[in-house]
Amino acid sequence: MKLAKRICTISLLLALLTATYSRAEESLPVSDKARTCARFLSKTSFWHLASKVKFGHYRLVREIMESRVLEAPELRKRKEKVGEGHLLLTTPKGGKEFYLVEFTENEALIRTVDGKYYRIQIRDSRMLPAGQDGPYRPLYALGDGSHTFFETTPLSARGIFEAIATKNKIDSQVLAQAKPESFEFVEFGPGKFMMGSPKEETSRHSDERQHEVIITRPFEMAKGPVTQALWYTVKAANPARFKDSGIAVAGDKVDPNKPIENVSWEDAQAFILALNESQSEYTYRLPTEAEWEYAARAGTTTAYSFGNNPKDMGDYAHFSNQRTTDIATRKPNPAGLFDMHGNVWEWVQDWYDSNYHKGNNVDPIGPSSGSRRVLRGGSWYYVARELRSARRYYAHPRVRSGVVGFRLVRTRRGQ
Fold first, then answer.
1. How many structural domains are present in the chain?
2. What's the whole-model pTM score?
3. Which of 74, 112, 135, 269 shows the smallest number of beta carbons within 10 Å?
């Protein structure tokens, strides 16, 4: 009886597929490009996919057809029994191969064969030309006559790190407790500003010679410094000193919203390399020293982004203290960036040059070599005058300290 019911149900599903296919062919023009849209590597039908799975053939077909939200235990059970390799797909025109990891009603998570993860939006019953360009580029087709297509959609910053967490098998509570500001970026367009400090500025240093700088290329800067949650997601370890009040994970602790510190410039580069290799939406990097000050000032010309009075610093920065604090607990600068003054010194890309005003003033990147890298912004340990927008500091690129972290800049790939 059960077998007969299954056969009947499968027949109905196949009939539905055939009908949908016919309607799609009648209502949509079929071009050579459309015909090249991706199918399963071996055969195109749902039934062939199901036949490869060693359990629940009908259930798997049903779940794909209904795009039902899968519960975590079911996902774990499926992966234990069949693995991701049974869901191998390919992009249009025989492009990249990848695996369907999991899917919900509106989106799916896929993994390319080189280990990169993408979260993609599901579009139903639409035929789109393979290779069509634009912000949402067709990636692959799932199914036979139904023409159920998946398209790429840009991952949110949180989505990027959630995909990496899935890949690295990171405890979900690490990102679940992270503030939204941990993942958010502010876009900065081209412009010019006066970098450095005027001679009359209180507490200025001799290496802050004021000069005009022109920024020609747009970039996005993170709203806050890289947190322990983000670092742990990418590196699966936490070198921070100030994590004792955090959550316990895999024999370590992570205080999700405190900035990562005790990392060298070289450590930051290793983190960025791993992040860039784990996703393909953006190119992440450290800001140049000019970009950092451009963003920190956000159009202001005063000693601090909020004015010239250091007595107001407490509203905007965490300083003169004994340890780090959660990011985004003080007021932001005019551009919406948090902790540009205080909390942790931030590594930038440039080698230190005391005569930086003599170099190129259009998109400057500093000298080509040196012995020390630049730090900006001040930290929890320092007094207000050391947190000025123009204040420069430096350290050997291998130095690690509980007062030093970093902030990310990104640009969309292909721009």
1. 2
2. 0.67
3. 135
